[in-house]
Amino acid sequence: MILGIHRGMRTTNSFGRRTKILAGAVLGALALALAADVGPLGAGSASAEANGTSVGAGWAHYGGDQGGRRYSSAARITPDNVGQLIRAWTFRTGEMARMPAHILRQAKWEATPVLHGDSLYLCSPFNVVIALDPGTGRERWRHDPNIAAEGVNPSNRFTCRGVTVWTDAAAAADAACATRVFTAATDSRLIALDAGTGRRCEDFGDGGEVSLTPSMPELWPGEVHITSAPVVANGVVIVGSAIGDNQRVAAPSGVVRAFDARTGAPRWSFDPIPRDARDDRAQSWGEGWREAGHANVWAPMSVDEARGLVFMPTSSASPDFFGGLRPGDNRHANSVVAIEAMTGAVRWAYQTVHHDVWDYDLPAQPTLSTLDLEGGPRDVVIQATKQGLVFVLDRDTGAPVFPVEERAVPQGGAPGEALSPTQPIPTHVPGLVPTHLRPEDAFGLTPFDRDACRRAIESARSEGLYTPPSEQGTILFPFTGGGVNWGGVAFDPENQILYANTSRIAHRVRLFPADQYESFRERFEGRGDVAPQTGAPFGMVREPLLGSLVPLPCNPPPWGRLAAIDLRNGEILWESTLGTIEEYAHGFLALPWGSPSLGGPVVTRGGVVFIGAAMDRYLRAFDARSGRELWQGRLPATAQATPMTYEWNGEQYVVVFSGGYPDAGVVAPSDTLVAFRLPRAGEAGPSFWSRTIDRPGGRSAAFFMAALVTLIGAGFVLWKRRRRARVRVGERNRA
Length: 735
Hints:
By secondary structure, the chain is α+β, with helices and mostly antiparallel strands. Helices cover 11% and strands 28% of the residues. It folds into two domains: 14-696, Methanol Dehydrogenase, Chain A (8 Propeller); 697-735. It is built from seven helices and 43 strands. The strands form twelve sheets. The protein has a five-stranded antiparallel beta sheet with strand order 1-3-43-42-41, with no helix packed on it. It has a five-stranded mixed beta sheet with strand order 2-37-38-39-40, with no helix packed on it. The protein has a four-stranded antiparallel beta sheet with strand order 5-6-7-8, with no helix packed on it. The relative contact order is 0.15.
């Protein structure tokens, strides 16, 4: 569901379903079927063939570069001409045709392609790796690892956010697998492919793959799986994992594994949780380190090859919402950890949440860049969080570059809880999202909704950020989907500006005695997420905070924003609403209230920020300086993926995966990669359709215009008939 977009949570579709029911009842009679002019959607369809293999600004890694800046030096598309973008080509993976519907409902299309050499490389949710021509979108090869889909229930759906391409500098340029594509499959396999042919690299592991066996038996197939792309640093390939949340205290460990990129031989492993009483971290766990799991690295990692470091964002320990069995700060959970790529040794670690009981793990790729400060240039790590906080750390030491305060936070947790009295709050950059929901803030379209929301807020604990979970019920604001989520941030190194999209939704979490799990599960069926937290004294239920009549969020809009921050002085330069509620109203009422977003922004030297992410069918372009929304490109479905951009044969392309989001339930899924570019000489620009109908609110405007014309026409016809009748009556009277 739109309100449950975060790691490891089995979600329901309550928001999407209830809103669609309401919207269908109220607005269904007004619907006008308008066919979208989206062009052909066949595999590799293209408007024209590109010639040659000339490449300019590229996108070689998941985050653009190894440091995840999501910045491109491409400058052909500018605020002045971005409105002229047209669809260049589309590519369909074919998964929609080959996979049964019940499996597709578990798929998330979140991949960002990478450009290496003369090919784009991408993956489907089922880990099919595909190479495409960058100028036409035509398929060059594909590799299907044949993962088991039936009988598997991945804790974060079938998801593949990207692949990693690595060139072996020691290999002959024409040697097989001199350049390799690494993909981490849902079923815990690391696979190496030849970048030119898609064939397995037989010298890697066992026939081109190595097993990533979980640390302990799974409760169900898919409890442990992989969603983010591996990284390669100094000839070592490193991979994390995603693990289902809130099922048990003794959950699988979040071990990060490293292998030789040439042979697949194991190099090292790193467990964020200590496994020995002699480990100096153990004292921050009580005896909890003996059983606790998770603290895994499910989000993308970053690499500084010059320093030989890998930067890992770790998650919370198990279970998410009760930590009484793991007293202490729980080092290195909820931390940015700098690991030596060759040895696995910890260089430094910085914890962003002490003793997490809110599922506020680190969801975003650490961003590596250089800040121009008064004392001179400084290499930093930028870490955005679900709470909408921005930490800036020294890349060599992990020390905060800007002030961070340990602030007192609400206390009085559940019986047996061991809360931290303080939490680190960076003060240089203001918080990007509101964190305190009061009864007087209650939102609703009707007085009934506002009253219901006010009462719901009054009945729960709502004391601001880090209010502890409780049997009474506690407001989580922001919810566990962010703030910032796995899409991360974009950073312009020339202007020193950070761009971040945030979600602003409130959830309510409630603890209940563990022996009442079955009754709570039945009670909240279809309304929220209920989990046993086996081994803890409490289970938990988590649900979106919605109005009673019109099920919109109880916190006031906007529910999604895009912000620009001058990182040198911490000033928020602008904020713009991201997204509309158009899809929830079946194409009508495209109110600019924003929506939760999944996927991140991209910023270019040309001065444009591109982003999909919202729960409507558009790739958007914003002016990087002013925040003004400049353009929307209609997509086959919503785009819960981060776009990428590159130059090819003198043209700049912007590419995004448009797959829909199964948990939102508002748009039929798709499996389409869409590329845009500027028109060529003599080529037509955007069509009238794309400039009018294929825009937010375009369909409702067209309907009401058609309805108005119809009414006027009907009135005219009726007037003519009545006039003729009066004439006939007059003629009869005269006769």
